[in-house]
Amino acid sequence: MISLRNVSKNFGDFQALQEVSLDVALGERVVVCGPSGSGKSTLIRCINRLEAHDSGEIVIDGITLSDKPAKLDRIRCTVGMVFQQFNLFPHLSVMENLCLGPRRVLGLSAQDARARAMKHLERVRIPDQADKLPRQLSGGQQQRVAIARSLCMEPRILLFDEPTSALDPEMISEVLDVMTELADTGMTMIVVTHEMGFARRVADRMVFMDNGEIVEVGAPKDVFTAPKSERFGTFLKKILSH
């Protein structure tokens, strides 16, 4: 489903990714963690081509990422993205935010786009918020709208870039509950997060990154009890002590 081979990415003199290789299978749930600046967000932004990698190869659902517009369009229909800061259009209602992509990119009629949007708003348990503007919603509600917006494109893969880090503590669980339900449906997911309870419950594998490299990969039951690398062990102790 997803294959990265020796992927590197530089921002000027800073090397954000260093020869990263990773495979993610269909239906797999992978949690990516690591300290700030370790390359986690850059990794998933390269997967959906929000950032262009400098070297190496990325193959998504059989498509090799390149700058050809047709391939980019196919990738972005296949790969959904949920951002830390929601990235909703503030001047559009919730319903309008959800209908925009299906109408403009997929060519759905207004009626079909609205029906699809309502289906996914029900899925994230906020159909009653359809006509509100984003600023009228709580942070947790806005993030659930963002998840529903991604689902409206019917992606095969969902990427989450620290989806709870901008939320108040009491709102985190409502977003993680929705993500857990999505995982239970068999959605292929790569989640950048420090929510270790979520990782224990949902992840098939955990990926620990540091200094732009993948340091360790393993099943949660293994890495939580006996991480192989000292760096990962130190990181887990700090995270779990909070």
From TrEMBL:
What molecular function terms (GO) are annotated for this protein? ATP binding
Please name the PROSITE patterns in this protein's record.
Answer: ABC_TRANSPORTER_1 (PS00211), ABC_TRANSPORTER_2 (PS50893)
Report the InterPro entries cross-referenced here. AAA+_ATPase (IPR003593), ABC_ATPase_HisP-typ (IPR030679), ABC_transporter-like_ATP-bd (IPR003439), ABC_transporter-like_CS (IPR017871), MetN_ABC_transporter-like (IPR050086), P-loop_NTPase (IPR027417)
Q: Does the keyword Transport apply?
A: yes
Gene3D superfamilies per record = P-loop containing nucleotide triphosphate hydrolases
Q: Where is the ABC transporter domain?
A: 2-236
**Pfam family for this entry, one:** ABC_tran
Keyword list (alphabetical) reads: ATP-binding, Nucleotide-binding, Transport
List the SMART domains hit by this protein, alphabetically: AAA (SM00382)
Q: Please state which protein family the record places this protein in.
A: Belongs to the ABC transporter superfamily.
Q: Under which name does UniProt file this protein?
A: Amino acid ABC transporter ATP-binding protein
Give the organism, scientific name. Roseinatronobacter domitianus
Highest classification ranks of the organism: Bacteria, Pseudomonadati, Pseudomonadota, Alphaproteobacteria, Rhodobacterales
